[in-house]
Amino acid sequence: MGESDPPPPPPPRRISVHQALGGGSVADFLLWKRWCGATVVLVSASSFWFLFERAGYNLLSFVSNVVLLLVVILFLWAKSASILNRPLPPLPDMEISEESVVKAADVIRVWINYVLSVAQEIAVGRNVKLFLKVAFGLWVASYIGSFFSFLTLVYIGVVLSLSIPVLYDKYQDHIDDKLRITHRVVLTQYKKIDDTILRKIPMPINMGKKIQ
What we know:
Helix content is 69%, strand content 0%. By secondary structure, it is mainly alpha-helical. α3 runs antiparallel to α7. It starts with 16 loop residues before the first helix and ends in a 16-residue tail after the last helix.
């Protein structure tokens, strides 16, 4: 190698998947560091999918029967405990804290505001590129949904969430190489579409007035 040759680029820095997922109990759960909880969720999701998708059980009837069975067991337990001087069923406080409701409401509010901002940008701002992206995403979701039921899609999401982080953490270098190649190909094709189609679409003049 000659003296004028540039030095080889440094290897890409490895990303900590655990820190990228938040570094808390959720990251431990998704990376199977808490294998007991992950196993319970995976087995439960598989059981529910089999019962409702393959065995033909009805969700409403199944939930009603399970709740009815629990209510009968707790009622008989409480009655027998009062007669035999035994302790009552060890039930926790069945209430939702105000803090949990506020946190959930904040998360829902952020997502609703984001959806509304996208809708406003398409309807009022007449953003053609954003409209095409949203339309393509909705078409892909509709196309995928024509092959699977909602419960199957949820089950696939659970399986992927419990498998992709672990696989990426183990084979990160190989996956990053493939993703870089794919990103270059997609970016090249997007630039071609942008130059030949999107840039030829007339864009409206921005009047600088924001609709409140």
